[in-house]
Design a protein that fits this description.
The complex is a heterodimer of chains A (235) and B (179). Chain A is α+β, with helices and mostly antiparallel strands and 235 residues long. In chain A, 22% of the residues lie in helices and 16% in strands. Chain A is built from 5 helices and 10 strands. Classes of the chains: A alpha+beta (235), B alpha/beta (179). Chains A and B meet through helix 3 of A and helix 4 and strand 7 of B.
């Protein structure tokens, strides 16, 4: 088996694995939001940025290679990740106290993991729509971070192609593949992977809000670094 | 006691929930009172902030008076602390940012259900509203941030204890939350 090192720890890997996959298999957590085991890597959120032989790369897309020296937990990279997360927060409208996903939200949990106490940057307060047209599913664009997971889930898992990303830069937005542009006119159903894969509160299932009391939510007592490894190994 | 630390507190565009949470330190406020003196605060009714060691700001900035009060605190406080979600990112009041100020006023005072004698308040003594609600760090430099809606009593206690004892404050995992 070929080996690389992550923060000095020797990690074996199978040919074809990414650095993220090798790390996860070895029980090493690298922060991420757009990455999910079993999905085609996207490499867009940049939270999994690591230094590979001195150069910054995305661990979720970069192939593991024999003898690689990977640095993940340096103060510099953690600061970069904190800034990336702060940018995600100010770019959308993330008001945790009024969001159904709070306590179970990966964006929020990553912020906790990175000890993010504030948003640092000026708030952008973009004008974004809420699509409440679907009887079972709500799409709140205010909380979308363009991770592309719902796009991939719909195409790869559900075989439906309900979502897409359109526009560039600050005009980038999630689009719904229907004549009206509304969720009600798509084939999306509550059983679809795309309805459940959102790491934030952008896609929510109706009538499930606040079913888990405060204190028992996914990230109330356990950081995402532990939860993620337990879940990812289970898949 | 002349060498007591002076603390000032205020609520800008907030709900006083953070102040209520602060008071949830319960009987420990007696311990605190041995080492600190309160300056301007809802707890004292002092109108203007004098020279202080610590200023706690709850709420975001939604009107001209908030800006004046915030700058008064910054001028007078050695350490300024943003307390709670609204001070950090605008919070609940900032959800009006999705609607124009004119539409907000029309809905609240003219067109809303159950409005009687519709008129938009225009008394010259009323502070002018800003077009958007803003977090306080966009107006003044902020030294520390206590997230939460509200931050728990334990957060207040741990933070103030650290500052008073000259330690660097830290938030353990259980106390770092945005809700």
């Amino acid at each position: 088996m070929a080996n690389l090192t992550i923060d000095g720890q020797v990690v074996g890997f199978e040919p074809g694995q990414t650095i993220m996959e090798a790390a996860t298999a070895a029980g090493i957590y690298i922060p991420h939001l757009c990455h999910k085991p079993g999905y085609t890597p996207h490499g867009s959120c940049k939270l999994c940025s690591v230094k590979v032989n001195g150069r910054v790369c995305s661990a979720c897309t970069f192939p593991a290679a024999d003898g690689q020296q990977v640095i993940s937990q340096s103060a510099e990279l953690q600061q970069d990740r904190r800034h990336i997360t702060q940018l995600l927060f100010v770019e959308g409208n993330h008001f945790c106290p009024s969001c159904e996903k709070t306590g179970q939200c990966q964006l929020q949990a990553v912020a906790y993991e990175l000890k993010m106490h504030d948003n640092h940057f000026p708030q952008f307060y973009p004008q974004r729509a809420l699509d409440a047209s679907h009887p079972d599913i709500v799409l709140d664009h205010n909380r979308c971070i363009f991770c592309n997971l719902c796009v991939r889930a719909s195409r790869e898992k559900d075989g439906k192609n309900v979502f897409g990303i359109s526009g560039r830069g600050i005009h980038k937005h999630l689009i719904v593949n229907s004549e009206s542009g509304l969720l009600k006119d798509t084939q999306l159903t509550v059983d679809d992977a795309a309805a459940h894969v959102c790491p934030t509160g952008a896609i929510l299932i109706r009538n499930t809000a606040y079913h888990v009391p405060i204190g028992q939510r996914l990230f109330d007592h356990q950081p995402i670094s532990e939860v993620s490894l337990e879940h990812d190994h289970g898949q | 006691m002349a060498n007591k630390l002076r603390i000032a507190t205020t609520s800008l565009a907030g709900c006083f929930g953070c102040h209520m949470s602060f008071l949830d330190i319960d009987e420990r406020i007696a311990v605190l009172a041995d080492v600190v003196e309160f300056d301007r605060s809802p707890l004292t009714d002092i109108e203007h902030c004098g020279p202080c060691d610590i200023g706690l700001i709850e709420g975001g900035v939604c009107n001209s008076e908030n800006v004046h009060v915030l700058r008064e605190f910054r001028r007078n406080c050695k350490v300024l602390v943003a307390v709670g979600a609204c001070a950090l990112n605008g919070g609940l009041p900032a959800m009006r940012n999705a609607v124009s100020l004119e539409d907000c006023l029309l809905e609240a005072y003219r067109d809303g259900i159950g409005v009687e004698n519709p008129q938009i308040p225009n008394d010259p003594e009323l502070p002018l509203l800003l077009d958007k609600v803003r977090p306080i760090h966009e107006v003044v430099k902020v030294d520390y941030f206590l997230p939460g809606c509200p931050p728990s009593a334990e957060v207040f206690w741990g933070f103030l204890s650290a500052l008073i004892e000259g330690r660097q404050p830290d938030l353990p995992y259980d106390q770092l939350h945005f809700d």
